[in-house]
What we know:
4 domains, Immunoglobulin-like, Elongation Factor Tu (Ef-tu), domain 3, mainly beta, 11-stranded mixed beta sheet
Amino acid sequence: xxxxxxxxxxxxxxxxxxxxxxxxxxxxxxxxxxxxxxxxxxxxxxxxxxxxxxxxxxxxxxxxxxxxxxxxxxxxxxxxxxxxxxxxxxxxxxxxxxxxxxxxxxxxxxxxxxxxxxxxxxxxxxxxxxxxxxxxxxxxxxxxxxxxxxxxxxxxxxxxxxxxxxxxxxxxxxxxxxxxxxxxxxxxxxxxxxxxxxxxxxxxxxxxxxxxxxxxxxxxxxxxxxxxxxxxxxxxxxxxxxxxxxxxxxxxxxxxxxxxxxxxxxxxxxxxxxxxxxxxxxxxxxxxxxxxxxxxxxxxxxxxxxxxxxxxxxxxxxxxxxxxxxxxxxxxxxxxxxxxxxxxxxxxxxxxxxxxxxxxxxxxxxxxxxxxxxxxxxxxxxxxxxxxxxxxxxxxxxxxxxxxxxxxxxxxxxxxxxxxxxxxxxxxxxxxxxxxxxxxxxxxxxxxxxxxxxxxx
Length: 457
């Protein structure tokens, strides 16, 4: 167990650069503490602090997405970058036994044993290939709400972020619970209920052989603290399935096999389901439309394409589609997807394309859109400013070189941020342009990615 990883500061961002951030206040923060963005722009990033001055702190590595005034940052002596690999954790038989009836549901011999418990603030841990036997809860991701004073008073409890951990190929055998995700406050101090305390962790290829209570348990005290957890290819061979709480956000379940065991879903939660073997119980999600693309690009002699439509819920889903431009023809405009283990294909053909077109798909009260772009000989025809996605690799400062191939005019656009959009104005109709992205490595500007050309229409 890793414990005592408390939050000492939770404050809004005033200003920030890639390597320095100023908050509304800093409390008991020092070099080596971990700053985690828990809301707003840059959500999910964790960085080690290199220095502190007033309400500002420096970072040992730059933000990949620079936070702004919408961002809230939690700071504490959090764990980060732990690896626990290929161990066997063996407890005692009483750890997994349910309370005997004569004790009225209370068992004085029960304990809180676990193989690995990330208890408090943590990020970027890898828990891989371990075995937990004869334990209460074999593998746990546990976030707490604690006050800075550590006593019961009017000081607000601050949640400890547990972000982007990887739990893979672990086995739980003879346990009460195989895998647990928990958010909990031990004191009655006022709490900030809307913080996301667990985000982005992946649970992949884990196995529960024998449990006496449940294989997977997700408990967030009915508040929206847990989000974007990915459960991929996990299996249960015990007599018990999975229990979940309400207000879970953007949970993903793909290819899990619990046989006929019950999996309980609750109201006010959002899920993506695909190719699972469950016996669904509780509040079953209805039909949910998923389209895993936003842009499809055709080029040269290519005149046709397709996109896969998925139903990520548990009910049959009827869909309809329309296109925004006459040059784009849909092979069909409606269909039905019966459940999470099947999909449908929306195909289209381009004839004399003249610019970007939008395809709109509506199903189950949801509307999703994606864009079809055609390139002629590798040159994009556009009519307004050009939007170029910036996918910076190292989080370093970016700039763009823009060359007008017709006139030789050359200009540089500075101050770009990763995962932003480059808007190029003052374009000349009919001229061809080349864009080259460059990243600053601390000493010089080096090219990142391939050149991109387009013709302004």
